[in-house]
Structures are given as structure tokens and as C-alpha cells.
Amino acid sequence: MAGSGPRAHVARLHAGLASTSDDGDSPGYHDGGPHRGPQVRREDPAPAAARFRDSPPGRRPPAIGDYGFLSDCTSAALVDRSGSVDWWCVPRFDSPSVFGRLLDAEAGHWTLAPVDPFESSREYVEDSLVLRTVFRTASGVVEVSDALAFEPGARGHDIGLRSPHVLLRRVTGLVGAVRMGSELAPRMEYGRTEPHFRPAGHEVEARGGPVRLVCTGPVDWSCGGGAARVSFRVSAGETVNLRLRYAPAFAPPDASDSGGERPSVQDTVEGWRSWARGHTGYDGAFPAEVRRSSIMLQGLTYRPSGAVVAAATTSLPEWPGGDLNFDYRFAWLRDLSLTVRSLWIAACPDEPHRLFDWFATAAGHNGGELVQIMYGVEGERDLTERELPHLAGYRDSRPVRVGNEAWRQKQLDVLGEVVDAAHVLRDHLGDLDEPVRQMLVTLADRAADDWTAPDAGMWEARDAERHYTSSKVMCWVALDRACDLAPRLGDGADVARWTAAGHAIRAAVLSQAWSERTGAYTGAFGSDELDASVLLLPLVGFLPATDERMTATIDAVERELGADGLVRRWSADRSGFFICTYWLTECLALAGQAERAGEWFRRATSYANDLGLLAEEADPATGQLLGNMPQAFSHIGLINAAWRLAHPSPAPAPNSPVPGTAASTGADPEHGGATD
Q1: Number of helices and strands in the chain (H, E)
Q2: Helical H runs in 197-240?
Q3: Which side of the chain, N or C, has fewer Cβ within a 10 Å radius?
Q4: Is 379 exposed, middle or buried (0-12, 13-18, 19+ CB in 10 A)?
Q5: Residue 394 has what DSSP assignment?
């Protein structure tokens, strides 16, 4: 629920003792600094002018916010302002990269830009993830349209179901004449394999390891020095289409190899348009920002299964040069209920329903083993983490990791996430089949049995397990929603036991999570250290935002952890976390502080790059985006907070014997969500 990926921080948050890390990268907990209010300071943006000929393989990578995001709803690519595709993992989000210059200068790229000095500007084409970049030179102006293609003719909810795995780059002359240059230098398996190149007229093949790439277009390539290169002139009114097609190295030729219908930029735009036309029911504040975020979430959805990955990248650092670099290309159960809500609000019931179906299938039968917190996009359980020492890392941020060891952690909050997601969808799941009923009963029973145990918490601490407040509260959520769903859960529903456990959790949190010294609810039982995760209490219905102690907690988080338009997770955190900032927005809206809430929303959202993309966090001092990009949880937070600003009034509570309910917060998207 509270974290899109493996934070893996060493949380110094037990027994009320405060400590800080030696290097500043692992978060400590100590008294916060002075409150400076929601004001944004920005460093000067990087110069728009760039030179194709001055972009050698060893260049310093652009800022994280300089990248645009492409998706075919199965895989993702990142392209920078100067026309370089520096990241493409294919055929799945979590596949090894074929372009990996994002993480190492020698790990592969595909540049396409004017040979002469240029300035560039960019935007997405309407409601799509087709990126249009305009390059202006002394001799003319050209437009490059980049897209990961859909299957020709795919429309609506069918986009991404059968991806052709084709990266499209279309050059269109607008004014005068411009000489373009392109360098295609793939490096398979995260940069380990330099392929063999074979040019053949208007086609060049790169084959290495398990991957075969074929680039076609009306140009003649020359090969040497580990790359295929070409230059060509484009005049006003002329168009050059380049198509880079992926296939397994040892697979037989597919239909696209033998002249079948070819994917195109225009058809891909039409596919995105058709999806957007079916998702127009949002009725909240900031509709343009919500619209863009909903498209980002669709782009982070692995359409064949419905799973939503936390981000498109691995190992982009939480702080430049640091070692908190993790792989986010998986689907976290912690994100499940908030993702379901945001998809419902900004999209339609079909998307969240498919997401829940994905989890129900991935989880399988639980026979008493640990409830896993994350899965691969097709339900894989084993996500064993390993390091790639041959890669330098983004701006020397090591190590580079693939896989994520957090899959082995005990995180009790996920129990509440899954049951809450079912509760949100309760009127649209139909009659629950036996496996789903059994799963929900098992999760509620686990919450009743295990809530007293310590765990790794939502920030996924790797040093020790503790009694995290948010974990206890989410166990309460599991019980609260299960009690409301009990009539549909069959004979296994034990409402009396669930109710008693819910009362016990509530009493424990109210007594042991409150710190008289801090004057707020804190991150762990017995601690005096403030943590932004406590903002979840009113959002899940555990306490109203107007409760005296909850109001004091909200004020303390704003005062001690908020600065420059962002909220940090704890006082020693260097960067501001977008999801925490949007949680504060929601809490203030629920407390009737509409003006303050709107100001925090606007300031946080102003950190998005020129394309509306948010990473996981940002440096409040410089405005630089940090962490994996784009980050699903940040866009989820934006959608939910925007809707809350327009719908702050509490909704009627369901009949639940556990004190307090989520519906009492007005969080249920049934009260104002979008529909087809």
C-alpha cells in the first residue's frame, strides 16, 4: 500500500531511540528541521541545445527528468531530449535491456537527431504515449515521432494484448532541410553482449545472445565499431520511417518478417485515442493532470495479465551516487488497493477488475506460507535479487540490481491491501468463487493471528523487523473490510474473532503509537520519531482527519517533514516523496483545509517534468527528479489526491462491527469515480 517498490531502508525506529546513518543514504530518525512551507526551489534546467556529434558513448547521462516514457503495455523505453533511446527492456518490462545507456555508457543506445547543432522541444501526441520531438537547426526543422507500437488495429482494451515488439521512429521534415544522423548500438543482456551486425540494403540486423533486432527503413546502413550508422537529409514534406523489431534470436521468422501488415506511428496513436475515448468519466479536480497520470498507469500495465509495475526502470538512485538502487519492474501488493482506487477514479472498472484477477491467480492456494508482497508481471514468485557489477550505474550510483529481495520479506500491511481492494470492487466482482473467498478469509485470519508480530514495514527495512504502526493499521483494515464482506465469504468467515482482533489492534495503536513527546502518532510502537506513513490512518478510515490527535499528527508531519512543496518520509530523509505529499494533500482535504491541501498538491505536481512524468521522489533543493521513472505510486497518489480535493466530504460507512471504516473517509471511488 505505501510504497511502490523496495525502499530497503535501515529504519532506526524502535524503542524510541533516534539515530542517523553515517553516509546519509540510509535513513535515520531524528528531530526534523524547521518548517519552510510548500515552496519550490529549482535549479536552472539543462540547456535545450545539444549536438549529435558531441554525444559519444561515454557521455554523462541526462537528468532523470530529461527522459520521456514509451510503452506498448508490455515493455518500456526511455528516450532523452537529444533523441537517444537509452533504455529498452523487451519483450517484458523486466526483461534484460537491449539499450541500457541509462545505467552505463557502454550498455547500448539508439540515437536519432540532426547532425548539426540543434534545439529541441517535445510533447506527447494527444492522449497517448507517442512522443513528438521537434528539432530546430540553422537549416531547418524536423519532427521525430517515437512510439512502441501496438498490434495493427488494436483498439480500446485490446491495446497491448499482442505487442509486435517494435520500436518506431518517424522523421518528418517541417521547414527547410535537415541532415539527420543515427547510431544504432544495441547491447543485449544489460550490456554484456555486443551483437553481430549484418546490413542488407535498407535493412540491418543485430544478433547477439538470445536477441535478434532488425531495423528497416529507406536508408542504407554502414556497420563497424560495434554500431550501425547512417546519415540522411530530410526536406520539408518528406517522411522517413524507421522500424526496429525484436525477436528471439533462434525463433523462426514471424509474419512481420515476411511482409505482413506493419505497425505504424499513426495506428499506434489511434490505439491510444481509442483507449482514451473509453475513459472519460473522471469528475474531480485537475483533470489534465489526472488524465496524463491515468495514461502513465496504463503504460505501466502489463496488459496480458493486468499487473501494474511499480516503475519502468531498475536502479535509478534515491540519491545520486548512493547505493539505494533497486529494481521496481514488478507488481507490489502494497500498491494494490490504492491502484485499484486510482484506476477506478481515472479509468473504468475493467482495469481494476483485471488487476485483482491477476493477483488472485498469481497468489494461488495459500497453505500457510508467507503471504508474498510482490510478483512478476505473469505471477512469478521467485524474484531473487542479484547485482550487475559490470555496469557503472546511473551517474556512478552502484550497485545496479535486478530482481528484488523484498519478495522474501514479511510485510503485514499487504493483508489489508488485498482485502481492501476486494472491498472496493465488492459490487463488481460478482459472486465470489471459492478460491477468492478462501483467499480473503485466509488473509483476514492471518491479520487476526499475526498482527502482534513485528515485520519489515512498508518502507521494507532490511536490517530488522519492528512493530510498525502502518502495518498494525493495515491488519485492522483487513479485518474491517472482511467483516463487511462476511456475508459473501461463506462459512469460513469468523466475524466474532475478526471483530475482537480489530478492537485489540485499535486499542494498541491508540496507546502505543502515540508519542507525548512528539505530540503525534509515530512510525513504530514506542518511538518518538515522526514518519509520514502515519498519514494513512485517516485515508483508510482508522481515524477521522478531524480527530484531535490525528489533526496534531497531520500538523506535525506538515511542519517537521514538509519543505519546498514535498513531504519527506522522516526527518533524516534527503529527498521528498511524492506519495507522502499526496497523502498529506488528502488528509488536509479531509480535515476541511481545502486551501492548504490545494497548495500542497500544486507544489508537488509542479515537480513533474515537461511531459507530466513523476519519478519516486525529488530533491527539494534543486527540483531534480530522483528514483525509478516513471513511478506508478506517484501518479496513483496524484490521481487519488486530485479526486479528494473535489470530494472531501465523508461518505456513509458500511455496517461493520470493527470500529471505524474506510468508507467513513470518503475514499470509496464508488462515490464519484469514473465509468466507461
Answers
A1: 14, 28
A2: none
A3: C
A4: middle
A5: G
Residue 335 CB-half CA count within 13 A: 31
CA-to-CA dists, residue 104 to 157, 389, 391, 396, angstroms:
36, 11, 5, 8
Q: CB within 8 A of 240, min separation 6: which ones?
A: 170, 171, 180, 217, 218, 219, 232, 234
The number of CA neighbours under 13 Å toward the Cβ of 666 is: 19
Going through 42-90 in order, the beta strands assigned E by DSSP cover: 68-71, 76-79, 84-89
To which residue does cell 540491418 refer? 204
Is pLDDT at 24 greater than 50 in this prediction? no
Q: Is pLDDT at 53 greater than 60 in this prediction? A: no
Residues 344-354 have pLDDT tens digits of 787 676 777 77
User: Which residues lie across from 112 on neighbouring strands?
Assistant: 182
For residues 180 and 112, the answer to whether their CB atoms sit within 8 Å is yes
Round to whole Å and give the CA distance between 389 and 553.
43
Residue with cell 561515454: 58
Gap between the Cα atoms of 225 and 426, Å rounded: 59
Tell me the helix, strand and coil percentages in the chain, rounded to 5.
Answer: 30, 20, 45
**What is the per-residue pLDDT across 146-173, written as a single tens digit (0 to 9) for each?**
999 999 999 999 999 999 999 999 999 9
Question: Which residues make Cβ contacts (< 8 Å) with residue 581, sequence separation at least 6?
Answer: 562, 565, 566, 567, 600, 603, 604, 637
Burial 139-165 (b: 16+ CB within 10 A, else e): bbbbbbbbbbbbbbebbebebbeebbb
Place of cell 499526496: 582
Cα separations (Å) of 146 from 116, 122, 166, 171, 623? 20, 11, 11, 9, 27
- Closest residue by Cα to residue 9 from 463, 328, 349, 411: 463
Report pLDDT for 541: 96
Residue with cell 491515468: 294
| Chain segment 65-122, per-residue pLDDT in tens | 999 999 999 999 999 999 999 999 999 999 999 999 999 999 999 999 999 999 999 9
Q: What are phi and psi of 454, to 5 degrees?
A: -75, 165
Per residue in 505-546, pLDDT tens?
Answer: 999 999 999 999 999 999 999 999 999 999 999 999 999 999
Residues 96 and 390: their CA atoms lie apart, in Å, by: 14
> Do residues 88 and 98 make contact, with C-beta atoms less than 8 angstroms apart?
yes
Nearest to 396, CA basis, from 320, 472, 488 = 320
Query: Is-cis flag, bond preceding 630, omega within 30?
Result: yes
E strands, 353-454, in order: 374-375, 386-387, 401-402
Q: Grid coordinates in use for 382?
A: 521467485
Q: Tell me the H-state helices in 309-433.
A: 336-346, 350-363, 413-424
Contact present, 249 and 209 (Cβ < 8 Å): yes
Q: How far is the C-alpha of 394 from the C-alpha of 400, rounded, in Å?
A: 8
- Residues in a beta bridge with 524: 468
Answer yes or no: are the C-beta atoms of 451 and 410 closer than 8 Å: no
Report how far residue 560's alpha carbon sits from residue 661's, in angstroms, rounded to the nearest whole number: 28
| 588 grid coordinates | 488536509
Determine the residue type at 129: L
What are the beta bridge partners of residue 162? none
Q: Which of 465, 488, 328 is nearest to 402 (CA)?
A: 328
Quote the CA–CA distance of 114 and 83 in Å, as a whole number.
Answer: 9
Spatial contact of 100 and 391, defined as CB atoms under 8 Å apart: yes
Q: How many CB atoms within 10 Å of residue 229?
A: 16
Q: How wide is the angle at C-alpha 133 spanned by C-alphas 129 and 136, nearest 5°? A: 170
pLDDT grade for 259, boundaries at 50, 70 and 90: low
Residues 6 or more apart whose CB falls under 8 angstroms from that of 328 comprise: 4, 5, 6, 309, 310, 311, 313, 314, 404, 616, 628, 631
